[in-house]
Task: inverse folding
């Protein structure tokens, strides 16, 4: 009998919610406010990324194009040795893996499985530690490593971009 009474009381508490509802005015206003804020955030982020991308195109893209695009972008011109069996498969695999981590085919923000902020931090670390390009690439492309001037220019763009993202996040 106590169980039946408890169920009836619970039902009595819930029925007014279904019949009367819980009002929509305040929820609609909150939803509108959230939508407006998210649209403003999108616009702000778009502006920020456009600013970073413009600096990338003007100062850094050409360096990446020469030094990184062979593996981290879509290329159509391959070296003569690409057709050699075994080498072709190795190169295809390396380029596929490289693009999985960071694809620079489009301008900044790059295509990756990370956030643009993490991409910049990773790029900075890779450049400072001389981790790219891998040795098997360097063996066939002696001039593929960044020069000190190129490092300085890329790191300057990254640091400026990190500051901009730090101020807005």
Result:
């Amino acid at each position: 009998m106590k169980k039946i009474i408890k169920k009836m009381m619970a039902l009595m508490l819930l029925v007014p919610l279904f019949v009367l509802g819980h009002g929509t005015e305040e929820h609609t206003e909150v939803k509108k406010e959230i939508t407006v804020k998210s649209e403003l955030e999108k616009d702000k982020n778009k502006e920020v990324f456009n600013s970073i991308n413009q600096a990338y195109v003007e100062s850094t893209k050409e360096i990446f194009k020469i030094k990184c695009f062979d593996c981290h972008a879509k290329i159509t011109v391959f070296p003569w040795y690409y057709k050699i069996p075994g080498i072709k498969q190795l190169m295809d695999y390396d380029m596929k893996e490289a693009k999985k981590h960071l694809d620079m085919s489009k301008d900044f923000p790059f295509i990756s499985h990370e956030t643009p902020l993490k991409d910049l931090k990773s790029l900075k670390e890779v450049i400072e530690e001389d981790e790219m390009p891998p040795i098997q690439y360097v063996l066939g492309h002696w001039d593929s490593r960044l020069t000190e001037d190129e490092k300085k220019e890329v790191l300057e763009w990254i640091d400026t971009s990190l500051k901009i993202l730090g101020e807005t996040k």
Notes: The longest strand covers residues 102-103. Residues 23 and 38 are 24 Å apart (CA to CA). DSSP finds seven helices and two strands in the chain. Residues 25-67 form the longest helix (43 residues).
